[in-house]
Design a protein that fits this description.
With about 350 residues, this protein is mostly helical. It is built from 17 helices and 4 strands. The protein has 2 domains: about 25-245, no CATH class; about 280-300 and about 310-340, no CATH class.
Amino acid sequence: MTVEAAQIGAVARGGTRAEAWWAFPAVPLLAAAIGFTWMLHGMLQRAYGMTGEAWDLAYDQQVIWNVSQGHGFYSSFARADFLGIHLELIFGALAAIEKLWPSPIVLLVFSSAGLAAAAPGAYLFFRAVLPADRAESPWLAVALSAPIPFWAAIQEAARDFFHPENMALAFALLAAWAGIRGHRVAMWVLCVLTLMCKEDQVYTVGVIAIVMSAYGAPDVKKHWRFILYLAGAWFLIGTGIVQQHTLSITGGSSALTPAIRSHRWLWRKRSSDPRRWQSWPRSSRRCSPCRCWRRVGCSWSSRRISPTCSAGIYRKTTSTITTSFFSCFRSWWRAASAPGSSWRCVPSSPHWRSSSSCRR
């Protein structure tokens, strides 16, 4: 009788485990749903409250609307073809949707969905990487993936309304999962979608290639270099040829794309010319520390003019401006000690680094 009861208990426990397999993926899905609702609600409140940002929501919305109307990627903000600034081909898919619903809310929905989808994408990735024969693997995957929609970095991206790379994170995680599980077609499609979000996502796809070299399925692992070749070709052809050609039509043959300008530090040496410091005193006069404190006072005094604003907004404004004050003070101090500056700093004690008197 005891043996039969033990066998029945073992069968019942096995059936419970088999039926509860969905409990682990349900947690990141629930976290994604909560995060999506939370982020979209905040975006809609700001958009309907006439506090939407022109950079980059209105900027991208205009380009996508132009594409949906057959006017190409033209932007009146830059007065040029947008593809010469950023290679974001994903705008074509968003323009097809805005053909049916021409509204900036479409961008907010996709931005929130992309950020929230990072949770289930991360869960699938961790489940594919972690050992399947360990009972702790599902718990660890849930613990690592469920909080992602509530990370400070994710909320910071949601605060900026829309950027196409908000969708790239979920695409990249799903591409890595597909490569580890051996779904080659899905992996390549997701890698291309990741690259279409922005030209700097070549770094992300490069990391996927490195992951595939170690954890990829056998059919993917032996061809991991082709993923790296895809990322390199996308950067060289897209940024070096397509963007340069597009920008040369509207911006002149000597113009450089922002992607190339932002990466010039890779090959440009740091300037040691002392004349580069002579512009610091002029910039410090335009940005004196006293002006920053005046802005703090103005932000608090405007509370009487706009009583509908919450005190939290002014606290955030004060902290931001205070940070700007210290940044301006540092620039002013470096300008005062620069060669050829009209400011003179005279040490007032042996510990001149901590106390000094500056006079004009």
